[in-house]
Amino acid sequence: MGKGLLIDASKCTSCLACEAACSLVKEGEISRDKSRIHMQLFPEAYFYYPLVCAQCETAYCALPCPTRALVKNHTTGWVDFYSERCIGCQMCVVSCPFGAITVRAGKAVKCDLCGGDPTCVKFCETKAIRYGEIEELAEDKRLLTALRFKEASLAGATPGR
């Protein structure tokens, strides 16, 4: 099926190392605005979540692209981006269900998984961002979800019931 990223928000400390490493490798400078991974703050809960291209099975960002600048690669499973084809129409930005695509200097910008060696993963000290086979990551995500349900159930349990 291919490789991808798994985000475990419960391990994220909001240190921003992923953003810094990404922008430094991709743009040659440390800039939150130039990173392809973005820490999204949910202020009501003071909760951060790293948003990055999910390399969706159905590439909703690619569907409306009039120039085929975004194309689902069926070999890698990734959504490849061809900057030279991009006309900056922003249809991909509107169509991405995760808000993971931005536009800079009139062109779309998205995660390309650093060609299979994601920098953000290397700099995530807490291992909140992992890279691996989608099937293995999906199994891990199911386990994480089940553990959260278990914790929530136990926290709400009343003794003697």
List the helices and strands and how they pair.
Layout: E1 3-7, H1 17-27, E2 38-42, E3 47-51, E4 70-72, E5 79-81, H2 91-95, E6 102-104, E7 107-109, H3 119-123, E8 129-133, H4 134-156
Antiparallel strand pairs: 1-8, 2-3, 4-5, 6-7
Structure report:
The protein has 161 residues and is α+β, with helices and mostly antiparallel strands. The chain folds into 2 domains: 1-52 and 115-155, Alpha-Beta Plaits, CATH 3.30.70.20; 53-110, Alpha-Beta Plaits, CATH 3.30.70.20. The chain has 4 helices and 8 strands; from the N terminus they run βαββββαββαβα. The chain has helices at 17-27, 91-95, 119-123, 134-156; strands at 3-7, 38-42, 47-51, 70-72, 79-81, 102-104, 107-109, 129-133. The strands form 4 sheets. It has a two-stranded antiparallel ribbon. It has a two-stranded antiparallel sheet with strand order 2-3. It is globular, with a radius of gyration of 17 Å.
Give the N-terminus to C-terminus distance in angstroms.
Answer: 45 Å
Instruction: State the domain count.
Output: 2
How many E-type strands? 8
In quaternary terms, these chains amount to single chain
Number of helices: 4
CATH structural class of the largest domain: Alpha Beta
Tell me what the CATH architecture of the largest domain is.
2-Layer Sandwich
Radius of gyration: 17 Å
Largest sheet: 2 strands, antiparallel
